[in-house]
Design a protein that fits this description.
With 300 residues, the chain is α/β, with parallel strands linked by helices. It folds into three domains: 4-88, Winged helix-like DNA-binding domain superfamily/Winged helix DNA-binding domain (Arc Repressor Mutant, subunit A, Orthogonal Bundle), CATH 1.10.10; 92-167 and 273-296, D-Maltodextrin-Binding Protein, domain 2 (3-Layer(aba) Sandwich); 170-263, 3-Layer(aba) Sandwich (D-Maltodextrin-Binding Protein, domain 2). Helices cover 41% and strands 22% of the residues. Strand 3, helix 5 and strand 4 form a beta-alpha-beta unit. Helix 1 (4-16) packs across helix 3 (30-44) and helix 5 packs across helix 9 (287-299). The longest helix has 28 residues, at 60-87.
């Protein structure tokens, strides 16, 4: 099989139609160039060039080989560029897991930005609750997660690193006919004894703990009437006048007409946050560039 250098030499001769000019173009003397062409013809078992003392012409086989040589050289150069970009983390694949609530605002913003900034990185997306994401990261089934804080991330032995990318405000979701839907700004104390639609332990342990701490500090006890996993289901139940709910401000992107979302006074410790998480020993060369772009996006 011929090598790439022989193909380049043949292309130079075919384009110049002169061994001397082709040799000068390749920074060779004419004799080594002639030997390369002869070796190429011997390897292929065909005559590629008709040589006279005055001219060089392509044979029919030479014309066919010239077209293929162009293709092979272009493919080799493209392979080199793509490999170098992959090594620099500019192309490849990132497997990104995310919570359902992050899909209302944060995830679309990240995907849109990464597609512009890193167009040769493919994103493979998978929705998971936060605990499932932590397990997937530990097992190297995903590269990056968009998740809520959890006890497992506080373990000093965890291989997972995190960065906070979003701090949200809590909003009070109430039916449009509810007394708290209008008037003075509601407070946490206004929820004492209220029917509360809240999070299921399976997917919402972070919010359960956050709200329990908030209610205990305020000295109140709402009545939990329903528990669900998804934010849109929670708002749907509020709209059906089942109860009220405390939700992250990403809920404004859902837009349910029967629900009023109102800011509620709460301490800074009650602000829900969303984390970017990854394994520190993940060898994916795309990860550093992806991570820096997401963090920069958050800084903006």
């Amino acid at each position: 099989m011929f090598d790439l250098g022989h193909a380049r030499s043949f292309v130079a001769v075919a384009e110049e139609m002169h061994f001397g000019r082709a040799a000068a173009r390749l920074n060779l003397t004419q004799s080594p160039l002639s030997r390369q062409i002869q070796m190429l013809e011997q390897t292929l078992g065909v005559t590629l060039l008709e040589r006279t003392t005055r001219a060089v012409r392509l044979t029919p086989a030479g014309r066919t080989f010239l077209a293929e040589a162009y293709r092979v050289i272009a493919a080799a150069e493209s392979a080199a560029r793509l490999t170098q970009r992959a090594a620099r983390g500019e192309s490849g694949t990132i497997r990104l897991s995310f919570t359902a609530a992050s899909a209302y605002r944060t995830l679309p913003r990240i995907v849109s930005h990464v597609r512009r900034a890193l167009p040769e990185i493919d994103l493979v997306l998978e929705e998971m609750v936060s605990d499932e994401q932590i397990q997937a990261l530990e097992e190297n089934r995903v590269d990056v997660g968009l998740l809520r804080p959890g006890p497992a991330l506080l373990d000093p032995r965890t291989p997972i690193a995190t960065a906070t990318i979003v701090h949200e405000q809590l909003l009070l979701a109430v039916p449009r006919s509810h007394p708290l839907a209008k008037g003075n700004a509601p407070t946490v104390r206004d929820l004492d004894g209220e029917a509360l639609v809240t999070w299921s332990p399976r997917g919402g342990r972070y919010f359960i703990d956050l709200l329990d701490t908030l209610f205990t500090a305020a000295g109140i006890r709402p009545r939990v009437v329903q528990r669900v996993n998804q934010l849109h289901a929670m708002l749907a139940l509020v709209g059906a006048d089942i109860g009220v709910a405390l939700v992250p401000d990403s809920a404004v992107h859902i837009g349910m007409t029967d629900v009023v979302l109102r800011p509620i006074a709460a301490p800074a410790t009650a602000r829900p946050c969303l984390l970017l998480a990854w394994r520190q020993d993940n060898p994916n060369p795309c990860l550093p560039s992806f991570r820096s772009n997401v963090v920069t996006l958050n800084d903006d």
